[in-house]
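Predict the 3D structure for this chain.
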Amino acid sequence: MHFELINELACGLKLFSSKIFKDNRGQFFEGFRIDELAKFGVNVNFVQDNFSYSKKNVLRGMHFQWDKPQGKLIRVLKGAAKIVEIDVRKNSPWLGKWFAFDLNDQNHHCLWIPPGFANGFLALTEELIVFYKCTEYYNSKGEVSILWNDKVVGIDWDIDEEPILSDKDKSALKFEDWVQSKYFDSLCYNYIKKL
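Done. Predicted structure below.
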């Protein structure tokens, strides 16, 4: 087995490590195997791959889709990142809770994020390349962003300076605005957890 489940949270997030083969030429590992993931309950069909390039102190997030919610398998190819997930599912016991993971090009961990989480990350190194596989196609009309520094959610990013943000992320919704929105019902925990 080339994938090992090293952390599984009750909310559905799963952190995996890959078996790494090293010799005098360098190293090799399998970054994705659907049969290995299926052994751990990740039985999905990935339809889109994304690459994100960032410089140090860039913060992207917190993004999700209410229409055609995406599950994601995320990995850092170069550099290091603090990956943060917020549960945004109606009726979830973890609604509004955040979870953080350190992914980098040394530990080669990958994180399974089921549909119904707002995803974001902070670049901790001068160069960061993040790769992720998605279970649904990108849908700009069904996308929502939660403020990275929302007071209700209270993410501890552990940074001393203002991060570099896109204009879109600067004007993202407050968490309470998401909960009050007409689209909130579309991300119901009881439905999503069965996917």
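The first strand starts at residue 3 and ends at 8.
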